[in-house]
Design goal:
- This protein is globular.
- The model has no long low-confidence stretch (mean pLDDT about 100).
- The chain has about 280 residues and is α/β, with parallel strands linked by helices.
- It has helices at about 10-20, 40-50, 70-90, 125-140, 160-170, 185-200, 220-230, 260-265, 270-280, and strands spanning about 5, 30, 55-60, 95-100, 145-150, 150-155, 175, 180, 185, 205-210, 215, 235-240.
- Bound molecules: NADPH dihydro-nicotinamide-adenine-dinucleotide phosphate (NDP) and dtdp-4-keto-L-rhamnose.
- Dtdp-4-keto-L-rhamnose binds near residues 104, 160, 177 and 238.
- It catalyses: dTDP-beta-L-rhamnose + NADP(+) = dTDP-4-dehydro-beta-L-rhamnose + NADPH + H(+).
- This is dTDP-4-dehydrorhamnose reductase.
- Catalyzes the reduction of dTDP-6-deoxy-L-lyxo-4-hexulose to yield dTDP-L-rhamnose.
Length: about 280
C-alpha cells in the first residue's frame, strides 16, 4: 500500500514521519515542495501513475497568516487550487484523501463549542483560502477526511511554542494576547489520528474537528510554556488591539470534537499533558 504525503517535510509532515517510524510503517512517501508541488498537475499525475496510492495526505499549505493578506493569489493557489488538484486525482485513482484545515475558517465572535455544522466565516485570507480548499475537496471527491485543527506546535519547524522558548531565553518580559481563545494541538497527536484513520481503514468519510482537549488563550499558553520549560519570564496580558498584526484572527475558535471521538474512536490528550511531552522532546 502506497501513501503519498504532500508537504512531507513541513511541521506536520515531520510529525507523521516520526509516528510512522515508531509504528514501523514504511509505506509512506514524503514529498517536499519540489518533488510534489501540488500546483503542478502534470507532476501530480505522474506521481499518481507511478505509485497508485491508497491514501494521499495533504500537509502542504500556505500557512503564513499575516503574509497571506498581501499574497492572496499565491495563498489561494496553494490552499484552494492545490487541494482541488489532489482531490481530482484522488477521485480518478480511487485514493482516500486526508486533508488538513484550520480553526481560522471561523469568524470567532461566538462562544460555545464550534461543531462541523457551524457556519464558517473567515476573517482573514489564510482562513478564507483554507475554507475554499475544504469546499473544493467536498465537491470533487467522496473518499476524503478533512481534519480541522488549531494552534499546531511540535518539536519540528516553526511554531508558537518554539518562538516562545526562543524569545523567553532572550527577554525577561513579553506581551502576549489574552483575548484570543482556542485549543493548542500537539502535531504529533494529530499525526497519530492520521495514522489511525489509515490503519483502521475507516470509511467514515467527511469533515472532522480535532485539537487537544481543553481551552486556553495565547497568554495562558505562553505562561504554561515558560512554567513547564522552567524559564523565568514576566508575561504581560495584552488585548488584541495592543498587539497589531496584519491579519485579523478569530477571538474564539474552540472546536467540538464529539464527532471524531464517536466516529473514529480517538482518545484526545489534554493540551498541558501534550505540551509537557513536546517540551521533553525539545530537551526542556
Ligand atoms: N501551523 C498551525 O498552527 C496550523 C496548521 N494547520 C494546517 O495544518 C497543515 C500542516 O501545517 P504545518 O505543517 O504546520 O505547516 P508548515 O508550513 O510547516 O508546512 C507546510 C508545508 O507545505 C509546503 N508547501 C507550500 N507550498 C507547497 C506547494 N505548492 N506544493 C507542495 N508543498 C508546498 C511548505 O513548503 P515550504 O515551507 O518550502 O514553502 C511546507 O513544507 C496545513 O494544512 C495547515 O493549514 C491547521 C491549524 C493550525
Ligand atoms: C510571537 C507573539 C505572538 N502573539 C500572538 C499573535 C497571535 O495572535 C498569536 C499566535 O501567533 P503566531 O503568529 O505564532 O501564530 P499564528 O500563525 O497566528 O497561528 C495560527 O497559524 C495558522 C497556520 C493556523 O491554522 C491557526 O490555527 C494558528 O495556529 O499570538 C503575541 O501576542 N505575542 C508574541 O510575542
Amino acid at each position: 500500500m502506497n501513501i503519498l504525503v504532500f508537504g512531507g517535510v513541513g511541521q506536520l509532515g515531520q510529525c507523521i514521519q516520526k509516528v510512522a517510524e515508531q509504528k514501523n510503517i514504511s509505506d509512506l512517501i514524503y514529498l517536499d515542495e519540489k518533488e510534489g508541488n501540488i500546483l503542478d498537475l502534470e507532476l501530480l499525475k505522474a506521481l499518481f501513475q507511478q505509485y497508485t496510492p491508497s491514501y494521499v495526505i495533504n500537509c502542504a499549505a500556505y500557512t503564513a497568516v499575516d503574509k497571506a493578506e498581501d499574497e492572496v493569489e499565491i495563498a489561494r493557489k496553494v490552499n484552494k487550487d492545490g487541494a482541488a488538484n489532489l482531490a481530482i486525482l484522488s477521485a480518478e485513482f480511487d485514493a482516500t484523501l486526508i486533508h488538513i484545515s484550520t480553526d481560522f475558517v471561523f469568524e470567532g465572535n461566538q462562544t460555545g463549542l464550534l461543531t462541523e455544522e457551524d457556519i464558517a466565516n473567515p476573517v482573514g485570507v489564510y482562513g478564507l483560502t483554507k475554507l475554499e480548499g475544504e469546499i473544493a475537496i467536498q465537491e470533487t471527491t467522496q473518499k476524503y477526511f478533512t481534519l480541522r485543527t488549531s494552534w499546531l506546535y511540535s518539536e519540528f519547524a516553526n511554531n508558537f511554542v518554539k518562538t516562545m522558548i526562543r524569545l523567553g531565553k532572550e527577554r525577561s518580559e513579553l506581551g502576549v494576547i489574552v483575548d484570543q481563545v482556542g485549543s493548542p494541538t500537539y502535531a504529533v497527536d494529530l499525526a497519530e489520528v492520521i495514522i489511525h484513520i489509515i490503519e483502521s481503514k475507516s470509511e467514515a468519510y467527511g469533515l472532522y474537528h480535532f485539537s487537544n482537549e481543553g481551552v486556553t488563550s495565547w497568554y495562558d499558553f505562553a505562561t504554561a510554556i515558560f512554567e513547564l520549560a522552567d524559564l523565568t519570564v514576566k508575561v504581560k496580558a495584552l488585548k488584541t488591539s495592543e498587539y497589531p498584526t496584519k491579519a485579523r484572527r478569530p477571538f474564539y475558535s474552540v472546536m467540538d470534537k464529539t464527532k471524531i471521538k464517536q466516529n473514529l474512536g480517538v482518545a484526545i490528550p489534554y493540551w498541558r499533558d501534550s505540551l509537557k511531552v513536546c517540551l521533553e522532546e525539545l530537551g526542556n
